[in-house]
Input
Amino acid sequence: MKHHVCTYGDLEKAGKIPVSINGKAIVIVRAESGGVYALRDVCPHKGPCLSDGMLDKGCSANEVGEYIYEKDKEVLRCPWHSWEFDIKTGKSLFAPEKVKVKTYEVTVEDDGVFVNV
Output
């Protein structure tokens, strides 16, 4: 079922907005590209709200002390222990096949943002 959660204008200003749909905590995230994504707003590690964390670029390295910022990968970082989750897939950067958060389908119609739960 599709739920109106916010306007695109509000999301554009805030970057991310926490919402509750049928008792489920969800965070709506706007990527730099303008795309909109929805993830479960609970870190699977210890349970804090991911919406309290920071949006950032994904970072990889080929050796110790090297930082390669991946412009096509945006992450939501947990505020407690800095676990990072790809905003498009919900997969963690450190163990993508084992640790992830649920994602939800998002549509933008006119200025409205809708999440399918």
Remarks:
- Helices lie at 8-14.
- Residues 8-14 form the longest helix (7 residues).
